[in-house]
């Protein structure tokens, strides 16, 4: 589990991948926080788009936004309670441009975002929102709490696979980010490991 114990513009977990072209993505993670303000849950940036894939909890308690290729889609009516573990998954496919959010196994509507592939040197940051490729963090967007079970796939998971993740059942680990492989020595970098 990653712990982010205080508001900061430095604490982060930075993950890199050799992938430089993504046509579809699923990201799943579990988070626990008491933050009432907006904060970043997952930030993927390339040199051409700082919000190539951003999962962002908005200031209002019921809104989570997904940014794909710098295009924000806001999902309202989400039951995001404080001091509760939440399972958050997002899917996006460039062929259709459709993006969807799953909070605690409950799907949102599908919305249109972008049909442009994610291309370039990918930097993934947990705990901060990248406002430049790999940096320009804002303390007022930082995550405070705990995060676990981060997986990323280069395809969209089916609803039943997302339900298995939510229910903590057997899943095929992420083929871009695999939580179980993150803790192999020297496999991950953190600017501020706690």
What does this structure look like?
This protein is mainly β. The protein has one domain (2-189): Jelly Rolls (Sandwich), CATH 2.60.120. The chain is 4% helix and 41% strand. It has one helix and 16 strands. It has one helix at 159-166; strands spanning 2-4, 13-16, 21-22, 24-32, 39-46, 49-57, 64-68, 71-75, 86-93, 98-103, 106-107, 111-112, 118-119, 123-126, 145-153, 189-190. The strands form three sheets. Strands 1, 4, 9, 10, 11, 12 and 15 form a seven-stranded antiparallel sheet that branches. A seven-stranded antiparallel sheet has the order 8-7-6-5-14-2-16, with no helix packed on it. Strands 3-13 form a two-stranded antiparallel ribbon. A hairpin with a 2-residue loop joins β7 (64-68) and β8 (71-75). The longest helix is centred in the last third of the chain and has 8 residues, at 159-166.
């Amino acid at each position: 589990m990653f712990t982010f114990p205080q508001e900061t513009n430095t604490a982060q977990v930075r993950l890199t991948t050799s992938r430089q072209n993504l046509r579809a993505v699923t990201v799943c993670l579990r988070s626990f926080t008491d933050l009432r303000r907006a904060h970043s849950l997952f930030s993927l940036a390339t040199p051409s788009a700082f919000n190539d894939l951003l999962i962002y909890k908005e200031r209002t308690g019921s809104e989570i936004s997904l940014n794909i290729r710098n295009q924000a889609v806001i999902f309202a009516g989400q039951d995001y309670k404080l001091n509760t573990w939440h399972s958050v998954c997002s899917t996006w496919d460039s062929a259709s441009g459709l993006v969807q959010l799953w909070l605690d196994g409950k799907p949102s509507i599908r919305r249109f975002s972008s049909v442009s592939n994610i291309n370039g040197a990918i930097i993934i940051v947990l705990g901060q929102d990248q406002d430049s490729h790999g940096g320009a963090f804002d303390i007022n967007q930082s995550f405070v709490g705990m995060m676990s079970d981060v997986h990323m796939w280069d395809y969209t998971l089916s609803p039943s696979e997302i339900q298995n993740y939510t229910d903590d059942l057997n899943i095929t680990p992420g083929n871009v980010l695999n939580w179980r492989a993150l803790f192999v020595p020297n496999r991950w970098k953190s600017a501020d490991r706690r």
